[in-house]
Amino acid sequence: MKNENFYSIFAKVRKNKIEELKNKINYLGISLSDIEEKFVKGGGKGGQKINKTNNAVMLRYVPLNVMVKCQKDRSLSVNRFIALRELVDSIEKILIKDPEKKKIIQNTKKRGVMILEGKTLSDKIINETRIMAEEFLKIKGRRPSLAIINYYENSPSAYYMNLKIKKCNSIGIDTRVYMPENKTDKGYFISLIEKLNGDPDTDAIMVEKPLPDGFDDENFWDVLGFKKDVDALSSVNMGRLFITKSFSDIENGNFFVPQTAYAAVKLMKYHNIEISGKKIAVVGRSSIVGKPLAIMLSLLDATVTICHSKTKNLDYHLKNSDIIITAIGKPKYIKGDMIGNDQIIIDIGTNFDENGKMCGDVDFDSVKEKVKAITPVPGGVGPVTLSLLLNATVKAAKNLV
Ligand code: NDP
User: Fold this and answer.
1) Cβ(307) – ligand 1 distance below 6 Å
2) Can you list the domains of the chain with their CATH numbers?
3) pLDDT tens per residue, range 258-291
4) Would the pTM count as exceeding 0.70?
5) Which of 94, 204, 379, 385 could form a disulfide with 230 if both were Cys (CB 3.0 to 4.6 A apart)?
């Protein structure tokens, strides 16, 4: 079942309703596990043994295990998901008479959360980027190149840095990593950026956070050249995001934006999540995620509430939103009792739990029964961020921004 969104329905179906069910499923255009086969075999709780010779009689009340699933190469859009829920409702209404089975259906329905996976979108962006990198090599006789400055070896960003390097190499982008040992010499940090700004063989510069105390200030923001600043840490790119009046300026690549925030929006759009007119709580106000995200969402006509560590009654803001986006850096902090029902959650957090397993800011297990849709961690916003950064690197090389 890897890479597949699926929705399973355990239903008791009358023979004469099978065609009706199939037609509804065909209408939705969703692939379906073989009804006939499961039908003949019976199966599921209380399934009856049926052999092909007498199934004409037995089929009347055989439990039917219907697995409706998304095709591998596409994800289930919100509209299709809602249509699917309606389908389940109609099965319930038309076909289910047995109260015990009804209970099973209702429980199954509750588990029917839509997973907003990021891998398919990420692969698409990576493939486009690979082609752009090949074109660049043909024209310029060298590969696009990304310089990465990283001060801390064991931070979550170092985890992402290693993924970036691997991915860059696999699609034709060169990387160079700078890991200054002296964590107090700010002068060296600034001169390194100046050197990379002026280096014709460096197309893009990424500075991984966190930085040593006192390094993340205007000396740095103003020195970082905006044309190489693919994650938009510079004053110029940040300022442009602040001033722009239209999201299409971002889509058209008129300047660089913080890619994690952009990835969250791209993923929402990819899954057809409506943003305009929605109440969205963004939890986290950092300059690389929360704040730019709030600007992007408001450009897309959402009403945004920015929450942070001093927000009073966080639950109230979460419960009163249609969509919750978290970027706080606290493993499994948001629990099921803090949110409302049928909301959409975008979890940007990249944390590690007490067993060293990667997890988000949201406690997936405790919210999954309540939410309409949620991003997984890992496998949600993370891969999209990575692919957008690579894409921005090649755009910087081609002087497209
Ligand atoms: P920062 O530490 O810079 O910011 C965290 C924000 O969360 C702050 O605004 C802070 O509030 C707020 N916050 C902390 N605790 C709470 C709380 N209990 N309630 C409400 N708000 C709280 O983190 P980043 O923005 O850099 O990163 C956030 C998360 O996103 C991290 O897990 C990081 O690993 C992840 N990330 C993921 C990426 C991806 O591609 N998926 C890329 C980049 C980051 P205050 O301002 O008051 O301190």
Assistant:
1) yes
2) 6-112 (no CATH), 119-246+384-397 (3.40.50.10860), 259-379 (3.40.50.720)
3) 999 999 999 999 999 999 999 999 999 999 999 9
4) yes
5) 204
